[in-house]
Amino acid sequence: MRYSAVLILTLVATGAVAAAGSAVVSARQQAMKDIAAAAKTIGLMFKGQTPYDQRAFKSAAETILRHSGPALVTQFPADSLGPPSQARAEIATKPEEFAAIAGHLLKFALALSAAADKAPGQITPSMRMGTDTGGGAVSLLGRRARMNNDPRAMPAEHVFHMMLQDCTSCHALYREKR
């Protein structure tokens, strides 16, 4: 009888840990879906497929902001990595690298949010790639002499594309399609 009780308690505890782990994975997946939907909103505006709406642009940037930086890192505790999740265990072995990508996402989201504050009625020419806030031309790669590594000094469209590149890089390194 004692062994049955121990076995039942072990199974219940294992189930509780699995349920907690699946809750973390579910919350993380929802955060990723929120980021993807926000990026789509901004992308459609830059492509001219939906009209520019400052509040929607700002809200999308703020959604990305809420789910980036330290908030993103905490979504990936070591015990939630690997199968059945798509998150690779490498996240736990390269935490500084993962945190750096999450930090880039935070900087890019802050820059996009600030760009929305400066553009109440339309996407301004200074928000577009191929422009420079100092009036000079930008190369095909978007490099400028005065870039300063500050995303807020770059055209928002360029920042948006850099953000998408970071998302792609992060998924290539830390996500395993199942």
Question: How would you describe this protein?
Answer:
With 178 residues, the chain is mostly helical. The chain has one domain: Four Helix Bundle (Hemerythrin (Met), subunit A). Helix content is 62%, strand content 0%. The protein has 6 helices and no strands. Helix 5 (95-118) runs antiparallel to helix 6. The longest helix is centred in the first third of the chain and has 46 residues, at 2-47. Mean pLDDT is 84; it is low at 3-20 and 142-147.
Return the structural class: mainly alpha
Shape: elongated
**How many domains in all?**
1
N- and C-termini, Cα separation: 42 Å
Instruction: Name the CATH superfamily classification.
Output: Cytochrome c/b562
Quick one: how many beta strands?
0
Low-pLDDT segments, ≥5 res = 3-20, 142-147
Order of helices and strands: HHHHHH
- The amount of beta strand, in percent, is under 5%
Examine the secondary-structure arrangement and name the CATH architecture. Up-down Bundle
How many DSSP H or I helices?
Answer: 6
Helix content: 55-70%
Q: What's the CATH first level?
A: Mainly Alpha
In short:
By secondary structure, the chain is mainly alpha-helical.
